[in-house]
Amino acid sequence: xxxxxxxxxxxxxxxxxxxxxxxxxxxxxxxxxxxxxxxxxxxxxxxxxxxxxxxxxxxxxxxxxxxxxxxxxxxxxxxxxxxxxxxxxxxxxxxxxxxxxxxxxxxxxxxxxxxxxxxxxxxxxxxxxxxxxxxxxxxxxxxxxxxxxxxxxxxxxxxxxxxxxxxxxxxxxxxxxxxxx
Length: 181
Prior knowledge:
The protein has helices spanning 22-53, 57-68, 74-81, 85-97, 119-143, 147-158, 164-172; strands spanning 72-73, 101-105, 113-117. It is built from seven helices and three strands; from the N terminus they run ααβααββααα. A hairpin with a 7-residue loop joins strand 2 and strand 3 (113-117). Helix 2 packs across helix 4 (85-97) and helix 2 crosses helix 5. It has a domain at 38-143: Orthogonal Bundle (Arc Repressor Mutant, subunit A), CATH 1.10.10.10. By secondary structure, the chain is mainly α. Mean pLDDT is 87; it is low at 1-12.
């Protein structure tokens, strides 16, 4: 029988993973830091381009997902980005006003807003994607011939378990860049 003076350092919240032993924690910190550095450099090239347009990372994400998913509903974009309606509204207004994104009413529900990139939006989205795909391609080549599948599985496992089915569906859909003018 436990008393209130017993050591409870082994007590863990239900449903939480067991922390790794102390010697493994430094290994995990190393991975965390590598992810921070990799993300910094992965996003750094596009950031420099976006700065010339007065845009930021939210603009980049909107352009990317709309370009890859023509006719994307605003509600679905909010779910993908996990940002507030207010934040998205500000970014969308800039992209629409400057001619990068086109909003159309839904065919069956006129209240629904469907998003498309314009030719101008596709050019910028492609420029940003080329920078990032080049960095990914270089890293995969440097990592060796079997790295791509390992990296894909690792990145997918980093996504919240409840979000994985939706992400898998998005990744499986054929992508055909489409623009409306």
